């Protein structure tokens, strides 16, 4: 037990590892912020496409389904390798010059958009059909009804799962460390390989937890607030 | 402008199926302008479906409907334009819970009729004042009683200045003591000359305000006529059965 | 009578001694009579093979032939060798090992020796620099320091570029294949890795990379890796020493590495 504590939580090693792990962690934060912004927007677009009515949009809906099935089913590690080591080999100049971090963001975005699309879809479908009917009955078009009536309600409902996926995204930025981006986990491994002490990992964990705790508490707060409002309205 | 036979709404031999189930069977109905037609009948008799066919929330399988001189079941129809002319109020889940009362009422005028914010706001407040709910303008729907919510829903429909108003059992989900305020509002609209088709269980009210009453039974208009005739002297046995049950239940 | 007894005694002694030394010479492998060798292919020239679960099928290469030669010296037939896949990154973690010894082009270092045992050295190597296609060749270590470098996690090459060269831009990959792929698609300008590994890789896939820019004198020696305190260590070391002495290792090197490493220019 004492040896485990020493190997993972040695205070001297903590101080020693801190600067490198911190500089790596900034890369994680950078990747997560950009990826999350892209995911929130792209997933909403694909969720809307997924729900478009009519025969004409069937191929588009099919593409959306194909996309979400494929990228929800493929492990992020595989997508990350394909993006960072595969894409630059295609011969396009902008891909060849893209940094591994940027390509890592692409991988994270592509995979998490697939998950978040389904979250949005669940939210949209949870809005009672009468709401869309009432909106359309006023003369609003399909997209207007979506924009002013359905989506505002849908998004409010799925804030907890959206935040959960965001927390997952934050942690999955560490996967990019295996492929040339020296973020916190890769720095931890480097430290471990140089000094045969795993405290570097603990430092990284502390940073991640410090970031996710406020988000987790915020999620709880939103859920509680919604429950209170629903209880008051139901009476 | 009205259709060739002079009616504002003309439903001819309309059939509607949901899968195997035929919910409307060869229904004929004419509604003259400024008239009030009440649809009565048991739940599942097709009243709601008929109303939704008129504003194209449902597509008919057979037959035709003409509204304001324009056939809406065949050819190219601008659905959104049609719906601007027709207001509908449902039994429940009417108001948009994420918007205030005022925002609910101004949404249509602003986004569909293109009014600017100030004009839409003043028109909406005027409307709410006329129904005595202007003090609730900035409240969210969940703070209003069921009766108040339905009245706001009616105001929202009226804000679009429709030519036809469809009411789909708007008091059926309300507590009994809240029904009156809604019926009062509807009554004032009939006095105002609004063309209306009202699906309702409130028989006394139907008798009072309608120009014509239609009894639907299993997707068929079993009997239609003046309210006095239908309620006092029903011709069809099914009509008599239905009304007898209503009287028995103390609802007339 | 005494003479007969004396002869019998000598005869018994003559029989007993070889028997005793035979019992004493049985090597303390994990499974008696079987040798478990750790590998982490591919490293062109050293070892290639197919990975199947935890094992390596059809291994071929310099280190495989050497392992077989050592097995022979230990009295274990090559059919009784189990080839285990042991990822390089896990090799130098403290604790028990699932293998008797591992051949993974492992440089003997003081830090590593604290957590594992090394056998006597069987190969000398320096670090080498392999360029990506189209990269400007460095003429000195100062030039090299300015380039974007790839290195593999837990290697002496990474240790060199981070702690001795102090390069400013280093990308770390978890496997040799990933690092070679990264170089091939141009993620970095150069890959710093043991010179025989990169020279062999360049020979096998000449069009995928730029030239071998040079070597860095680090005087590294490879040793077989054993668990700390492994009783098999002296057996393996003496086998290697014997094979070095009788030129078996030299001949194997010639067979598997037709590269004259001394021809590669030294970067200073």
Description of the molecule:
- The complex is a heterotrimer of chains A (235), B (252) and C (268).
- Chain A has 235 residues and is mainly α.
- Chain A has a single domain (2-234), classed as Orthogonal Bundle (MetI-like fold), CATH 1.10.3720.10.
- Chain A contains 11 helices and no strands.
- In chain B, helix 3 (101-111) packs across helix 4 and helix 5 packs parallel to helix 6 (176-192).
- With 252 residues, chain B is an alpha/beta fold.
- In chain B, the strands form 2 sheets. In chain B, strands 6-7-8-3-9-10 form a 6-stranded mixed beta sheet, with helices on both faces.
- Chain B has helices spanning 47-54, 79-85, 101-111, 117-130, 146-158, 176-192, 203-209, 227-232, 237-248; strands at residues 9-18, 21-31, 36-40, 62-67, 70-71, 86-89, 164-168, 195-199, 212-217, 220-225.
- Chain B has a single domain (9-248), classed as P-loop containing nucleotide triphosphate hydrolases (Rossmann fold, 3-Layer(aba) Sandwich).
- Chain C folds into 2 domains: 31-123 and 221-263, 3-Layer(aba) Sandwich (D-Maltodextrin-Binding Protein, domain 2); 125-220, Periplasmic binding protein-like II (D-Maltodextrin-Binding Protein, domain 2).
- In chain C, helix 5 (156-164) links the parallel strand 8 (149-152) and strand 9.
- Classes of the chains: A mainly alpha (235), B alpha/beta (252), C alpha/beta (268).
- Chains in contact: A-B, A-C.
- Chains A and B meet through helix 7, helix 8 and helix 11 of A and helix 2, strand 6, helix 3 and helix 5 of B.
